[in-house]
Model the fold of this input.
Amino acid sequence: MGQKRLSGVLTVIAWLLTATAGWTQQTGDTVITNQARSVLESSTDTTSTIAVPPTVQLNKVHLLVPDDLIEIKVYQQPDLETRARIAMDGTVTIPLLGAITVNGMSVEEARAKIHDLLAKDYLVKPQVSVTVVEYAKRVFTILGEVQRPGTYEIPTGEPFNLLQAIALAGGYTRIGSPGKVIVQRIENGQKRIYNLDAGSMAKDERVKPFAIVPNDAITVGEKFF
Done:
């Protein structure tokens, strides 16, 4: 009798275990099915908005120009610390090195140049930093036969040419000659003079307008009657 009762109890336990396993499997199947349905519904939902990362706008690298105020530091060498404006010939004077040309270089290129010069003859593995403390004003000067001669700031963010410079100065005077325009510019420490015909630039689309850069000096000549 005891054995029959024990056998009956074991049978009940076995049935309960089987039922529980079946319920768990069904529950698991239900969970999987719900997950699959969720994925399918989201993939077929035409109203869903796909997030697109915004286009990364790379900042233009600043190239050093005359009148930029820069700071040069050398780690553990306070005597070499320099804060100076780049001269009109594109150079900056640094202790030990003297005047070196940095015009047209990026900050990183200037740093590398100073590092190499110091490492060559003076210091072992110098740690150099170059920082632009104040950017030069982008200006040009226009004189001669224009309505408002003087110094003007070049608009930022877009190219600027000779015709725009003349217009900014109010245009020609009555005796101003579009064919007699001179632009003086410092290039690589040397003065360069361009004799230009602004009249041809204005009339002929095939003639590319002359680009004006910071510190250009423009002179408009007069007509001969």
Remarks:
- The first strand starts at residue 69 and ends at 74.
